[in-house]
Amino acid sequence: MTRQLYEFNGGVHPEQHKHASTRRPIAIAPLPKVLVVPLRQHIGHPAKPVVAVGEQVWKGQTIGQAEGYVSVAVHAPTSGTVTAIASHAVAHPSGLADMCITIAPDGLDRWIEHGALDYRNMDPSHLRNQLRELGIAGLGGAVFPSFIKLNPGAAQKVPTLILNGAECEPWITCDDMIMRERAAEILAGAAIMRHMLRCDEVLVGIEDNKPEAIAAMRAAASQCDFAVEVVAVPTLYPGGGAKQLIKTLTGKEVPSGGRSTDIGVATFNVGTAYSLHRAVNHGEPLISRIVTVTGNVHRPQNFEVLIGTPLAELVRLTGATRDDTSGYVMGGPMMGIDLASSDVPVVKATNCILVKSPALFPPPPPAMPCIRCTRCAQACPADLQPQELYWFARAKNFGKTQEYNLFDCIECGVCTYVCPSHIPLVQYYRYAKSEIWAKEKDKKAADLARERHEFRQLRIEREKQERAAKLAQKASARLTGATADSPDDSASAAKKDAIQAAIERAKAKKEGITPRNIDNLPAEQLQEIAEIEARRARIRAMAQDSVEK
Amino acid sequence: MLSSPYIAEKSSVSIIMLKVLAALVPGIAVYVWLFGPAILVTLTLASVTALVLETSAVRLRGWPARPFLMDGSALVTAWLLALSLPPIAPWWLIVVGTFFAIVVAKHLYGGLGNNLFNPAMVGYAVLIISFPVQMTQWPSPLSLAGAHLGLLDSAQYIFTGILPDGLKLDAISSATPLDTLRTQLQLEHTVREITRLPVFGSIGGTGGEVVVLMYLLGGLYLWLARIITWHIPAAFIAGLWITGGLFHVADPDRYISPWFHLATGGAMLGAFFIATDPVSGATTPRGKLIFGAGIGMLTYLIRTLGGYPDGVAFAVLLMNIMVPLIDAYTQPKVYGHKQKEPAE
């Protein structure tokens, strides 16, 4: 009866702290005084602003258009006036500011005209385009545009659809609560996914520390007009990582550098399914999401929050700020990012605001040398040898880190979590990855420069030869009068051929040395690259500042 | 600014090393009970020497002394070395051995985490090569000894070489079962005849086999406490038992039962406490199996065919040399590389 589950390597059991924020139901956060909507909320291109300062906007109106393929639109979360289109602090590991559209709400919350889509009778590519316009992106954290994942591609179908309700990070409960309270709507979203991907089976993976969510989803599944299997999976961090959940439920592994559709599996966060349902069956773009506010607050709770709500206003809903508050994290304690200020707005990626205090999150003791105890390797869900990667990353032996599959690291942080020497291992891997990307970028630039240089050399050589040929032609013309023409022509044609062949060789050579890593990376890693580039930019800016000072 | 994770498991090098020390306590207690309190003197002497040397070395490096003393690794080295040496050996033997373990094997190679060779076994190897006579003066089990040295008498003998009036060294010391086996075999006695000697117990040596059993229990505790994995001890034991078993089956008169080999000398201490030193051992699961099996096999070959009564130290050091090679060729398959190898 029960489904056979599979084990991935390692994993850890950090303290859950989930009950703190599940005692109260999801509350609708009140309209904030101001909404700041970042144009870049996902990997790929930022959206292009299509409104002007001073313009009146309606709730749900597109204010930023999708640009490029990996991109979705952003929308006005409420009706009001655009007051600024400018750089603003955003939630990003770099702490850098980014372009945002600021809206002063008029308090009326007036919707633009919107309505349900008849998805069953729509052309699939038109439907996907609609989802792109409606701003639907993954709410599990990666914010990958959903329309791309909802394309069955050449295979015509993706047999297995997995809804990810595992939510393995401590403290976070937004998926737990949405499953408890809106199970039927989540499955309505799953119905759309199932239709678009022509799935044979629909699975919902939920960690067994959420019995209420499992019960609610099972109850909703029994009312469903298609088969949905709600599977309780063992509570084990990072069991909610897409790759780990796929392994747990199907026993299959996503090939390195590949996508889950390669093995016939599509995974979506349960929150994404809910948003998809709102978008398709109600025509509502993605302008709100469930956010857990927890940690060092008086009343931890989940809120349905408009995208663009400033963090400080959201945190205030849980009571007055505690004196020992030492910072804010977006996401959970294992993979979340430190926020530079409480000024940043909630974005599509914001699943949790974790308020820090030194008591809840004490700084780690000083790092000791690695004793190669391999606790990290035993805990690594990617079956890596973190102690070797650490050794090579520390020695800046980046070639070796790649040999030891650095790029299969999902940065879940369990290695750092278990390390008895308190070495911030995952930081070394992030550092090594960013260095490798930077180097390959430099190498690409150098290749381009060399190619130009070689071409210039070639051109100079060709011009020289052409001049010489011309001179020779003139000389021979003088010698033989007007009769000789064909032999010289064939000689110059041979030269041209030789030049052409040299150009071809140079081209082939250039193509042969294309760097390995940046091309054909999965989208998640492209996002990492973007983040790391931003971090580097910030460091450069800081260095510049200090030089100027 | 530190990035995530912001939480960590409660663990530290100190806790690991303390658990290793705790796991040795039952063995030491039985040692004292069956062989007298001399081992307490050598353990203390080795510990003090190790801590003094560790402090000086860490200071010379310009590192903070406190965290490195608190990590407990010097104490573990000292205890493992002391437990491998004859407990009534002269004080300078302990000091020289500890010096080679802590200063030469560990700190000259870069300190904690950087040594290629097991420090305690380097100390032991230096001593057995340099001072073979002193290294073979083992106390008799109290049940067989003609006399009994108290704590103060032991300390006096270790530091001054003077025994209480009227007592001769022969009365308190005797050859170990492994030594006895070796010399008796050279005298053309058969295993059956040799094992009738009183120094042989029911499986290993009289008294010694109980200490070995305690090491085994301590080792199982380390496994349950997840300080060590099962790979190295299991492979060590299998390597020793299978190699010994093959010889024994071929000629039981000449080659003693493999169980005897497991129950004597440094086998259990080596399998659970010495070969499992993470710094100098193999790290991959398959690598650990090869590493452990290699030590077990070499231990048997050195004991049986080599020139030394016990082979654990040399077996460990020889396999230490192989570790980089073993690790490099036994890398486990990474997630996503199992079903389909990338076309490279």
Automatic annotation (TrEMBL), chain A:
<feature type="binding site">
    <location>
        <position position="373"/>
    </location>
    <ligand>
        <name>[4Fe-4S] cluster 1</name>
    </ligand>
</feature>
<dbReference type="InterPro" id="IPR011538">
    <property type="entry name" value="Nuo51_FMN-bd"/>
</dbReference>
<feature type="binding site">
    <location>
        <position position="376"/>
    </location>
    <ligand>
        <name>[4Fe-4S] cluster 1</name>
    </ligand>
</feature>
<feature type="binding site">
    <location>
        <position position="412"/>
    </location>
    <ligand>
        <name>[4Fe-4S] cluster 2</name>
    </ligand>
</feature>
<feature type="region of interest" description="Disordered">
    <location>
        <begin position="473"/>
        <end position="497"/>
    </location>
</feature>
<comment type="function">
    <text>Part of a membrane-bound complex that couples electron transfer with translocation of ions across the membrane.</text>
</comment>
<dbReference type="InterPro" id="IPR019554">
    <property type="entry name" value="Soluble_ligand-bd"/>
</dbReference>
<keyword id="KW-0004">4Fe-4S</keyword>
<dbReference type="GO" id="GO:0022900">
    <property type="term" value="P:electron transport chain"/>
</dbReference>
<dbReference type="GO" id="GO:0009055">
    <property type="term" value="F:electron transfer activity"/>
</dbReference>
<comment type="subunit">
    <text>The complex is composed of six subunits: RnfA, RnfB, RnfC, RnfD, RnfE and RnfG.</text>
</comment>
<keyword id="KW-0813">Transport</keyword>
<feature type="binding site">
    <location>
        <position position="415"/>
    </location>
    <ligand>
        <name>[4Fe-4S] cluster 2</name>
    </ligand>
</feature>
<dbReference type="Pfam" id="PF10531">
    <property type="entry name" value="SLBB"/>
</dbReference>
<keyword id="KW-0677">Repeat</keyword>
<dbReference type="Pfam" id="PF13375">
    <property type="entry name" value="RnfC_N"/>
</dbReference>
<dbReference type="GO" id="GO:0051539">
    <property type="term" value="F:4 iron, 4 sulfur cluster binding"/>
</dbReference>
<keyword id="KW-0408">Iron</keyword>
<keyword id="KW-0249">Electron transport</keyword>
<feature type="domain" description="4Fe-4S ferredoxin-type">
    <location>
        <begin position="400"/>
        <end position="429"/>
    </location>
</feature>
<dbReference type="InterPro" id="IPR026902">
    <property type="entry name" value="RnfC_N"/>
</dbReference>
<protein>
    <recommendedName>
        <fullName>Ion-translocating oxidoreductase complex subunit C</fullName>
        <ecNumber>7.-.-.-</ecNumber>
    </recommendedName>
</protein>
Automatic annotation (TrEMBL), chain B:
<comment type="subunit">
    <text>The complex is composed of six subunits: RnfA, RnfB, RnfC, RnfD, RnfE and RnfG.</text>
</comment>
<protein>
    <recommendedName>
        <fullName>Ion-translocating oxidoreductase complex subunit D</fullName>
        <ecNumber>7.-.-.-</ecNumber>
    </recommendedName>
</protein>
<dbReference type="Pfam" id="PF03116">
    <property type="entry name" value="NQR2_RnfD_RnfE"/>
</dbReference>
<feature type="transmembrane region" description="Helical">
    <location>
        <begin position="116"/>
        <end position="135"/>
    </location>
</feature>
<keyword id="KW-0472">Membrane</keyword>
<comment type="similarity">
    <text>Belongs to the NqrB/RnfD family.</text>
</comment>
<keyword id="KW-1133">Transmembrane helix</keyword>
<dbReference type="GO" id="GO:0022900">
    <property type="term" value="P:electron transport chain"/>
</dbReference>
<keyword id="KW-0997">Cell inner membrane</keyword>
<keyword id="KW-0249">Electron transport</keyword>
<comment type="function">
    <text>Part of a membrane-bound complex that couples electron transfer with translocation of ions across the membrane.</text>
</comment>
<feature type="transmembrane region" description="Helical">
    <location>
        <begin position="199"/>
        <end position="223"/>
    </location>
</feature>
<keyword id="KW-0597">Phosphoprotein</keyword>
<keyword id="KW-0288">FMN</keyword>
<keyword id="KW-0812">Transmembrane</keyword>
<dbReference type="GO" id="GO:0005886">
    <property type="term" value="C:plasma membrane"/>
</dbReference>
<feature type="transmembrane region" description="Helical">
    <location>
        <begin position="91"/>
        <end position="109"/>
    </location>
</feature>
<keyword id="KW-0285">Flavoprotein</keyword>
<feature type="transmembrane region" description="Helical">
    <location>
        <begin position="256"/>
        <end position="275"/>
    </location>
</feature>
<feature type="transmembrane region" description="Helical">
    <location>
        <begin position="312"/>
        <end position="330"/>
    </location>
</feature>
<dbReference type="InterPro" id="IPR004338">
    <property type="entry name" value="NqrB/RnfD"/>
</dbReference>
<keyword id="KW-0813">Transport</keyword>
